[in-house]
Write a structure and sequence with these properties.
The chain has 210 residues and is mainly β. 3% of the residues lie in helices and 47% in strands. The longest helix is centred in the N-terminal third of the chain and has 6 residues. The radius of gyration is 17 Å and the shape is elongated. The two termini are 26 Å apart. The N terminus is likely disordered.
Length: 210
């Protein structure tokens, strides 16, 4: 089992600050990283996660680590005026094709507002913005939605296929942190120790899609 966040993870990670670019090369150990994977083991002081590439990472678990629960909602729950975040792939016509959509609770409106690179897939993007208009998606994406998203300094048109995960989140509990749970962990190496800052977890095998 490895005790440090590897250069591979660091090289592919995203800085947590709003608008931060994808890291092009391995960064200093103090840079935050995003780890997607499955809980292997957890106790009061340690969180062990196998990431989606198969690497097992052991993280210190501080007492103030935040836990959030992500859970699915319906495409129809995206409304005009909703503040959302969507990982997407740029399309040749200038639109974005959604890979997932997070509908933020009202208390989290404005979180990370803007458009930037993302690390879900190669070349993917993230847009956190307000739904200004919505309509039926083009015939090529039957059953989906087309969203016009506005944010400070710009706007994007995003097409959401009907099978794309649409989720929201709420404060989580200890019951989410069990072996086998799918998680997204924001982590940082502090004083030489990889440390979990925040864990977003699904219940009953549901995986955070972002």
């Amino acid at each position: 089992m490895r005790s440090r966040i590897s250069p591979v993870l660091l090289a592919s990670a995203i800085l947590l600050g709003a608008g931060a670019p994808v890291l092009a090369s391995a960064q200093a150990a103090s840079d935050p990283v995003r780890i997607r994977g499955t809980i292997v083991r957890v106790d009061a002081k340690t969180l062990v996660v196998q990431d989606r590439g198969g690497e097992v990472v052991s993280l210190a678990r501080p007492a103030d680590m935040t836990v959030s629960e992500v859970y699915p909602i319906k495409l129809s729950d995206i409304k005009q005026g909703s503040f959302i975040g969507t990982a997407a792939m740029p399309q040749a016509d200038g639109t974005q094709k959604a890979l997932e959509v997070v509908v933020f609770p009202e208390a989290a409106r404005g979180t990370g507002e803007g458009h930037r690179p993302w690390d879900l897939l190669p070349q993917s993007t993230m847009t956190n913005a307000t739904v200004a208009d919505l309509a039926a998606a083009p015939k090529s994406v039957r059953g989906g939605q087309q969203l016009r998203l506005t944010y400070k300094g710009g706007e994007k048109t995003v097409v959401v296929p009907p099978d794309v995960p649409v989720v929201t989140f709420r404060p989580g509990t200890e019951s989410l942190l069990v072996p086998g749970a799918k998680v997204l962990v924001n982590a940082q190496e502090k004083n030489g120790t990889p440390t979990a800052l925040r864990v977003t977890a699904g219940r009953n095998g549901f995986a955070p899609p972002m």
